[in-house]
Amino acid sequence: MRSTLTDIARDSGVSTATVDRVLNNRPGVSGRTRTIVMETATRLGYFGQAEPTMERIRLDFVLPEGTNTFIANLKAQLERQCAAQDGIEYQLHSVEGFNPLSLAQKLAALRPVTQGVGLIALDHPAVREEMRALAEAGIKVVTLASDILHVARTGYVGIDNRAAGRLGGYLLGRLLPPTQGKIALFAGSLSYRGHEEREMGFRHIVSEEFRHLEVVQMREIRDDRQRAYEETLALLDRHPDLAGIYNIGGGSSGIGSALEDRGRGKSIVFIGHELTEKLETAAAVGHDGRRDRPESARRGP
Questions:
Q1: Alpha helices in 3-99 (DSSP H)
Q2: Which architecture characterizes domain 57-157 according to CATH?
Q3: Is-contact 191 122, C-beta < 8 A?
């Protein structure tokens, strides 16, 4: 740390006011005292000391590509937060969201250049191995939104996904009538531990408290609006008496558009996650807003 006026005054045997007069070349100090103060200041390294430069830290964030609004908002927030911090150099990387080998390759490429990695990680042996390699190289690793257990990581930033799934099941069960009913689940990919945990939590609460509900379908839609739209239309064709839908991941606007196009927007209870500016409610997706619908929805009548 840089020496202070108090340090110089103590070693010189004078007051801090005298030191201040000497260092600022003001009158009222004898020549001898002035010499003693200047020699002490030099010995303590007061002169020529530059403020310590802050070491720049390189951070990298690896997130899935695609149309998921939650991921887009997360990227924007990461950019804002990193840009507001001094001494941080950062870069955001997009990889194929459901390809663990692509994610593992990106992590391997970052190992020689980064000091910290944040990622939404697929639970796959190749990804686990690269996360371990990062940790062994002294690189801090943080999982975002979806965690991976039993690997060396600094921390997890996200919600309790099992509890989120239980809440989704509880809301669906409470909002549906207490009679026999069919419900369906959509997920981005169960390769994400967070999606798997939400499904487990959902099924547990339904089996515990709402046994009159029957899960008739579970589909992975890769958080894609178009795929969600098409899968929902097919679901409604197979089960015209469907009572409820729980969407574990992204693509909710596609599901909402399909329900609206089939006139089921008010007769099916739809529970999802991640309230965004484009998805205030499932019923509002199609309200005077066909521009936000998937391509096939916009081509419809």
A1: 5-12, 16-23, 31-43, 69-83
A2: 3-Layer(aba) Sandwich (3.40)
A3: yes
